[in-house]
Amino acid sequence: MDLRLPRPRLPGPRRLIAAVAAVVVLAGAGTWTAVASDDGPAVHRSDRVLRTGGAKIDTSYFTAGDADTKRPAVLIGHGFGGSKADVRTQAEELAREGYAVLTWSARGFGKSTGKIGLNDPKGEVADVSKLIDWLAKRPEVRLDKAGDPRVGVTGASYGGAVSLLAAGHDRRVDAIAPQITYWNLADALFPDGVFKKLWTGSFINTGGGCEKFEKQLCAMYNRVAVAGKPDAKARDLLAARSPAALGDRIKVPTYLVQGQTDSLFPLGQGDAIARAVRANGAPVAVDWIAGGHDGGEREAERGASRSASAPGSTAI
Question: Which H or E run contains 129?
Answer without folding.
Answer: helix 124-136
